[in-house]
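Lab notes, practical 5.
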Amino acid sequence: MKTNSRKKQFIFLTLMMAIAVFFAFQFRAVAEESALVSVAGLNQTNEIGRDTLAILLQLQALSLDGSLFEDAVFKYLTDFSVTLVARPIGRENPFAAIDLEEALKNQTPAESDAKPAL
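Output from the prediction step:
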């Protein structure tokens, strides 16, 4: 009878130790993984910051010659910009079902004259 009880205790303790070791390794792996991610992210941020700083220093070193704007060739340039006409911007909810009557009511004259594509 004592051997059966000792055997059960031994199996129980062995099982508990195996579970404890499993969780210890899992916790350690997660901790190492999160440390690697944060260090990698920090290094990447520093690298981006260095690149940005180098570009900023190059921009500060630039000097523009204002006489370019006083040149006759520059003054001869013509502005060909086009003024855009304000138009309605689509539907409030583009994913809502389309109501045919509402679509026809909101149609512009240019769209109503167009022939449907086959």
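Observations recorded by the TA: The mean pLDDT is 77. The chain has four helices and no strands.
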